[in-house]
Amino acid sequence: MIHQNLGIISVFCLLFHVMEVFGQSDTQVEKPNILFIFTDDQGYHDVSYYGTKDIRTPHIDDIRNDGMRMDFFYTNSPVCAPTRASLMSGRYPDHVGVPGLIRSTPDNNWGYLDPASLLMPAMLKRADYHTAHIGKWNLGFETPNLPNEHGFDYFHGWLEDMMDDYWAHRRHGRNYMRLNEEIIDPEGHATDLFTQWSVEYIKSRKESKDPFFLYLAYNAPHFPVQPPEEWLKKVKDREPGIHDTRAELVAFIEHMDNGIGKVVEALKETGQYENTLIIFTSDNGGHLPSLANNGPIRDGKQSMYEGGLRVPTVISWPEVIEPGSVSEQVNLSMDIYPTLADIAGVELEHGVNGRSFLPTLMGQIMEEKERPLYFVRREGGTRYGGKAYHALRLGDWKLLQNDPYQPMELYNLKEDPKEENNVIEQNQKTYQKLNALLMSHIQEGGKTPWQKPE
């Protein structure tokens, strides 16, 4: 169901809440800066705040300690481009033309972003935000779907999906690194470059009266897993007996975590931290061949089981979000859009599929109707054949398949959180109900083309 955001009323409630709780009735409360940190293929438990013993992510942990841990945060797809389309639009992936990966190879491309989509930066500009994107875009390589054409005042990053090498910055031999629309060829590890550019951007905003929105999207820890040698040595020295593949991934994530620490430190050094909302999450579950740790849930990237869809997510906002708090509310990537609209005071004039969870961040109990949650991925190759496969969650029930030729499976997540017992035969009425909802979503998504028109 399309859901309108909570609008200006929520912002007034938020400001009143902040002033009431923290005794700031005589102080003007400003719109916060927004730092959105998006990682690529980071496993649900590939953070040390969950107690994972072989990895150390102190800077991600700091965001968690200063804010809220969200234990049931889902991505809109088990792969990256569809999730990014949902994140940026607040809508289901195929409703904006991105049911699968957007690739630079036309014979294996499964998405085309609807150019008319109002994306997050354009929405935030209506509230006078300066908008910047540093890192991975993956929503188009040419006009009309370049970052600057969708509301980003500043783009410094990578247009394509993955990099073939984190130092050479090429994909299929082509350079997709850009400064706005200019082709650039910087030297250095991509993680370090994105960190450095983010620090520079934050420092440049120190004297500005307008708030900023910085979307920092690291390519890491997406394969090829290439940590700097000193970080790999550190992990191997600290973790005797660790598998070489796992050591490389741990080092890769720890190197990125160090960069996140530098970005947050830049906020503190410039006096902007106290008025900055920080969101950290990932685009899909961890990549199992890289030995990602998805915790106790089943499977990983590309899968509609929980391990492909649930991701580590923490959000901090000084003096608004209670430090060390935990939420078990089910949210999706697309819910961030209306949440930020509420925070910025932007009243959405168009429908979105997501809904704001601002009250949850404020420590309030959200009374809401049960909503069907829809997941999609379209892919090529002999396993998928250009077809799509789906999942749908309604309450504790989840209907899914993991390729378009596979029979549907049904699980009760409350009774079977590891999705070990397919109970579709015993629950035919529930299956029929969820399948009807799923078909409705598929029909709605089919209204938007996912190939570039001639």
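^ that was protein a. below is b, sequence first then the tokens
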Amino acid sequence: MKARRDIFQALADPTRRSILLLLAVSALTPNAIAAHFDSSRQAVSRHLQLLVACDLVRQEQQGREIIYHLIADRMEDVEVWLRQFRQQLALRFR
């Protein structure tokens, strides 16, 4: 079993957050994703690989194309953490 990287590491970068927003709308090829950014295709590819390593995105081979899909269920980990954080803040600042 491979070790999964930390989801918060992926979310720390604004480009990766933007990629996730794009993929929330529809599955895209790397070139379609890269078209939304001023950075190189290679830089976008590195961001995508980290998102895959964090299990936020999955790759699907369709013929010669690779299509990236958001794994929306993984955002539940973030929701749980935010809920716990908000509860602690509410207790502290009552």
